[in-house]
Amino acid sequence: MRSRVVEARSFEGRIAIGGGLEHFSTWGMSKRKRPVSTGPSQDLSEHEKTVYDLIRSKRDMGIRSVDLRRDTKLFPNPNVVDKALKALLAKNLIKQVKTVQYRGSKHYMATEFEPSAEVTGGAWYNEGVLDTAFIDLLKERCLIHISSLKVATVDMISDAIKRSKIFHAECSSQQIGEILRTLVLDNEILEVKSTGLGEFTCIPIGRVCFKLARKPGSAKEPKAYAMASIPCGVCPRIEYCSPDGIIKPSTCEYYNKFLDF
Amino acid sequence: MAIRAGKQNLVQAFTAKDPGGHGDAVKQTTEYIALFDNIIHRTRFPKFIIVVSQELEKGCVELFEGLLQHGRLTLEKLIDRAKSGKHIQENSNIENAVRENLSKLVHAHFVERCPAIEPVLAPPSEDELAAKKRASRSLKIAAGPDIVQRVLEAAAPMESKRFLFMSDENCIDSEKAEASFVDVGEKRKHSLLASDSDLGIKEEVLWRANYEEFLRRFRHKACVENVRERLDDGAAIALSSMLEAGRRLESKLKTETSVSVSINAIYEEAMKAEVGRSMTLDDLRDYLTLLECQKGADESYSIDLKSILELAQNEEVESIVLKKYGKDSYRIFRLLSKEGHLVETDKISDTAFVDKKEAPKILYKLWKDEYVYMQKVTVMGNRQSQFVLWKVNKATLWKNVENDMYHAALNLSLRVAHEMEQGKELLSLPVEKRVGTLGEKVNRLRRIRLVLEESLSKLDDAIMLFHVF
User: Fold this and answer.
1) Where in the cell is it found (chain B) (predicted)?
2) How far is B61 from chain A (nearest CA, A)?
């Protein structure tokens, strides 16, 4: 299993979530550091100061290099901007961040700020890309605990994950809830309300809880229903198909494959 | 041709009255409407026969097959049909057997009295005419669902007569029948065969298969299977028992809620099946609660069938989306389907855990194929921002899916016919020559036919889910 550290945002501040058994970075850091009061501007040239002030004004949103050139009105001299950026990076006054919207272009931010969720994509993004490996890992753990508990609330699953100590840092109940929501959309689990009877005995009546959508041991994928089981049901060319047309059932390639036993 | 089609229950004749203008005599013309659903039901005859064979004995099945073949028959014709090819000494036994079997079929509601051959349809009222003119000023409406419904209602026998079978006579006295009719302002014409005029006017009762009963059972079965898939066998047994107990009381096919039935009646029904015998009354109560049944006075229960069928329809369409577009699209589609309202792109991406760059591409593809509806909204603030919102428009999508299902059903039929045509020579080989390579080819052809026909049968169940239920 690949280990990775993901920096994420939550109500408590930054959370580091370790994926796997490797060590991870600390947590509990505040949202942004207090801005440095003594002016670095004394050490900066005029161009560097202009660029730095503009970048700093964008706070936790940062700015793309394209927009930077336009806004600083130094556009006729793109080299000047590039030189200023290089100097500021070297002095550690600004940093480059990966954004979810503009992955191809360079995005700058003052060092004292942490990128907002709008820039990074949110808690589940790592360097501008959705961290599907970590999400899949969390989904898998949730399914294991639901399978063992038979029926469980968000809090029960969240507690079970904490107790398992698979992850070094905690995922909030809200985050577990988001994972469970996506498992419902995957049709892996069902969201039901406790009746207080039978398998719901331990859960207060009316409380939202989750159970596996399919019986253990059954097929992993959701069942293919009537239309999805035949070539025509998923054919991208069905609107062009007719009994005597160029695309027709008697010569259809998809049917040939379907009947190729 | 029209009369033959009428006998096969594919068209319904009616007498239309045209009041004419002032001073003009009332004109009466015979018109016909095609019963398209009945045309399609003919492909379901094998399913109907299976249902009858599961409940009644062989004699009933043979009688029923005769009615399907000929469309409508009198008791006399049924007896003649049964007698043909048999020894004359067996005739009285055959006659009794036919009466008994027909009685069983009628009692089970598999067979019903035929509707009136040519009911008289009263002209529409002035209000109805005005409404129709407003609605169809530029449209030519030949026979909309409205007139079809009116004709069928006018032709239908009274509910008390529909399943009335008198075993000791094959006709009813029309005077008695007239007296028992509810006066609805329309005169019903009765068929056909007048018997000996010395005995007064008599009508022979025509019998036909009651499609509605089979469709009702298929509808119930679809609900039960959906529950079994989603919940478990116990819940399925509870639902099945509840529907069985109330089936006779359902007044129409597409009831939104099942008939309210007492817990004791449901329990009694559950005990009839072997699988239900281990269930206690408390178990049954728990299952009915799990099914979210509505509990009435005196501990009677009913269930929202419409919701179950909607879930089944959703699953059918979601299955197509998964197979055609993949898991991310499936999650997005299910999200929009559950939300039921417009949702913004980023919100979709966040909730469905689809990368923000990928979500718009997926949504665009679904939109192009008319699985989702798109709306752009511009918000004026300090800066003008444009948002793209999406939702599943079920009414449009369900119609498209239904059309595709009919198209697919046609394609399956054509492919079966094509494969059988291609393999005609192989299939005509005598059994002793079907060895080696030839034998393998024959087996392959059989397997192809089986797969295609099974697919068609399953698809037909899905068509009923969208069109009939």
Assistant:
1) Nucleus
2) 29
